[in-house]
Every structure is written in structure tokens, then in C-alpha cells.
Specification:
Layout: H1 5-13, E1 18-21, E2 28-31, E3 47-48, H2 49-52, E4 54-56, E5 62-64, H3 66-73, H4 78-81, H5 85-92, E6 100-101
Helix pairs in contact: 1-5
């Protein structure tokens, strides 16, 4: 199967769970419910994992950041968070620039 940037973006959008910055340790942590972070993560700092991996880029584009995907990989919960083959390929192809895309909400 040929891995395209469209498949990689789709895989990023299908990530599960939530990410929050633990204020005490300064490390990002992943949970599968917004309610399970406790007092160590501010409510306004809880982000769906599928949004966490995207950073604001030039203009209206966003960039799929390898360093943020790596933070999720470091949690060693790949199946639960739904890290699939297209994201693994993206992470291994460091010679290729990070993907930038204009993302839109599609109602369907």
C-alpha cells in the first residue's frame, strides 16, 4: 500500500484520547477521558490527541509536527491511542518535510 500525505493526515485525525501538560512535572500526559487528568492539568489545557499533533503554520495552514507525534509514541500505548501505519511511515521518513495542510471541518 502506498502511503500518501492524505492517508497520513487522516491517520492523525483518527488519533484517540486527550493530551494535557502536567503542571507539576512539565511533561505531557495522555488520558482517555477529559475527567481523568485531576488537578495537575488545567481544564483549558486539555486537547484531543488528534488536534495536539497539529501546530499553526503559515497563513491558514497547519503543520503535522513529528515532535508532537513522538510525545504520543513515547507513551507506549500505540494501539489505545490509534497510532497506525501511515503515522509510523511519516515518523520514519525524516528526510521528507513535515506535512502542511489547510484543515476544514466537514459536516457529513
Amino acid at each position: 500500500m502506498r502511503i500518501t500525505s492524505q492517508l497520513i493526515c487522516r491517520a492523525a485525525d483518527q488519533l484517540k484520547g486527550f493530551v494535557g501538560l502536567n503542571r507539576k512535572t512539565g511533561h505531557y500526559i495522555v488520558r482517555f477521558s477529559e475527567d481523568s487528568f485531576g488537578m495537575d492539568v488545567a481544564d483549558d489545557g486539555i486537547i484531543p490527541a488528534s488536534e495536539f499533533v497539529w501546530a499553526t503554520g503559515p497563513g491558514q495552514a497547519m503543520t503535522l509536527k513529528r515532535e508532537l507525534i513522538q510525545l504520543l509514541l513515547d507513551q507506549n500505548i500505540d494501539e489505545r491511542i490509534n497510532i497506525t501505519e501511515p503515522l509510523r511511515v511519516y515518523m520514519s521518513r525524516v528526510e521528507v518535510l513535515e506535512i502542511s495542510a489547510v484543515r476544514r471541518l466537514v459536516h457529513g
